[in-house]
Amino acid sequence: xxxxxxxxxxxxxxxxxxxxxxxxxxxxxxxxxxxxxxxxxxxxxxxxxxxxxxxxxxxxxxxxxxxxxxxxxxxxxxxxxxxxxxxxxxxxxxxxxxxxxxxxxxxxxxxxxxxxxxxxxxxxxxxxxxxxxxxxxxxxxxxxxxxxxxxxxxxxxxxxxxxxxxxxxxxxxxxxxxxxxxxxxxxxxxxxxxxxxxxxxxxxxxxxxxxxxxxxxxxxxxxxxxxxxxxxxxxxxxxxxxxxxxxxxxxxxxxxxxxxxxxxxxxxxxxxxxxxxxxxxxxxxxxxxxxxxxxxxxxxxxxxxxxxxxxxxxxxxxxxxxxxxxxxxxxxxxxxxxxxxxxxxxxxxxxxxxxxxxxxxxxxxxxxxxxxxxxxxxxxxxxxxxxxxxxxxxxxxxxxxxxxxxxxxxxxxxxxxxxxxxxxxxxxxxxxxxxxxxxxxxxxxxxxxxx
Length: 451
Prior knowledge:
Blueprint: H1 12-40, H2 46-83, H3 86-99, H4 105-128, H5 137-149, E1 156-159, H6 166-175, E2 184-188, H7 194-202, E3 203-204, E4 216-217, H8 219-222, E5 227-231, H9 238-250, E6 252-253, E7 262-263, E8 267-272, H10 276-281, H11 287-293, E9 296-299, H12 310-319, E10 328-329, H13 331-339, H14 345-359, E11 364-365, H15 372-375, H16 396-414, H17 419-426, H18 430-439, H19 444-450
Parallel strand pairs: 1-8, 1-9, 2-5, 5-8, 10-11
Antiparallel strand pairs: 3-4, 6-7
Helix pairs in contact: 1-2, 3-4, 3-18, 12-14, 13-16, 16-17, 17-18
């Protein structure tokens, strides 16, 4: 029977310093012996010592070249193959052009690695969160927060405008938690009257009130050892807020009409589109409950703050459409969708796409299939599409340029003209933003002064 070969692997962090140290150790005694020999025989020191120094320098240089080749050659091959990928090639060329440092290999490699990281982050997000559509910097930040807090039992407060997908985020937290195989109970605090909401949350005993013909378990009992999601908690009445606080603190509650405390083990996720801090100051929300809920806060960006995600969201809605034919959207209609402010956020976008899908007969959504408030121009005064009676309309390319210019101005206004923050908001690097600002002749100083 053949014996298996054993191999030993040593870290590069050990090998490379050992090689450098070895050269130093060898050069010291050899230098001493050469000097001793020359002095003993009364020979000149300059030429042999200089020759030895030169030999050591050459040897060290060659060793360094071998090490660098062994380390960098596989990386160069990998980067060359990566640059051929469609997802990277265009962006890397743009970064190199904007940096004006095409000859600097380190800058070039840094750009490629940055793009590879971005692509891997997007792929990771798609795999871990297939229901959440979004590759913008803002949404990737939200997904990172989900991955951090999901495995814990920490209470999560999700803040965001109506229609931004707070329930979807809560569901994702639950699906990636240790309680994923346990109950997940959702309740909308704004959808029920106060007297019914209390019974729904805590249950009631038989005869507790008129119509209570039997004992009923509440949502907290159903969610025991699982997770409960309290949507629109900002609309919860003050007297119920005190009872919710008791569950958070003591992990117990009483049924309506009951006298025996019921112990529960639940994880809390809450969401609201209200400003709870303002409500606390106005006395409309309990301060102690707010502090109990505000353990880990996730701010969900509005759709207008992540417009680069709109094409992906539209594509998902069209894929989920019940239509038997494959649906698409032309570039002019898509740019109108990107330019709109979406006060109703994703919910409004979904309704718009569904309506347009019904209106189209060719299988492609065009500008005339969009509602009037979207098809007649852009919110915020960025651009208004010329009327058909007002002469020659602008070309699609010109409209797209105006849209991009308007998005850049909007981002710069939000960040008070700070280009680094504007670049982060738009999901592009600072050099790329600077290139576009120069291209469209945007006066950043004027934007700063106007804020």
